[in-house]
Design brief:
Length: 154
């Protein structure tokens, strides 16, 4: 989770879902700054297991699926790049697609950036059209006033 406080504070929270329950229970929580190493255990095998090494703790994790582990690593890597200026954690034994430029986050960010640029361009164009319409309206108003004044004199 990331707060909206200044400066932003990011934390990693481990939750567990017990069999037969639909809710999650918070187990442990660390600040992102405490993360020192992310260990994917085996880059050549899709497995849900991984380890996180923190300043004062070592913790073993199991994601629901190998795919969810991959997504978690991508989100975690992106979050570290964004919020940590010093001491970024080391990612070891991770599949290259996690760190690659074609991650789902980069694709999503590119899509959002593209959408924002298109919307901004559309707004600028609309603003220009509205500006021209206002100028035309002002010209018509002045013309109507002049016509009214001329007609009143006649």
């Amino acid at each position: 989770s990331v707060t909206n406080k200044k400066p932003p504070q990011a934390s990693i929270t481990k939750v567990k879902q017990f069999e037969g329950s639909t809710s999650f229970v918070r187990r442990t929580q660390w600040m992102l700054e405490q993360l020192r190493q992310v260990n994917g255990i085996d880059p050549n095998r899709d497995s849900p297991e991984f380890d996180l090494l923190f300043e004062n703790a070592f913790d073993q994790w199991v994601a629901s699926t190998a795919s969810e582990k991959c997504t978690f690593f991508q989100v975690l890597h992106h979050t570290c790049q964004r919020y940590l200026t010093d001491k970024k954690p080391e990612f070891i034994n991770c599949q290259s697609k996690i760190m690659g430029g074609n991650s789902i986050l980069h694709s999503a960010a590119d899509s959002v950036t593209s959408a924002v640029q298109k919307a901004s361009q559309a707004l600028n164009e609309r603003g220009e059209r509205l500006g021209r319409a206002e100028e035309k309206t002002e010209e018509l108003k002045n013309s109507a006033q002049q016509f009214a004044e001329t007609a009143h004199k006649v």
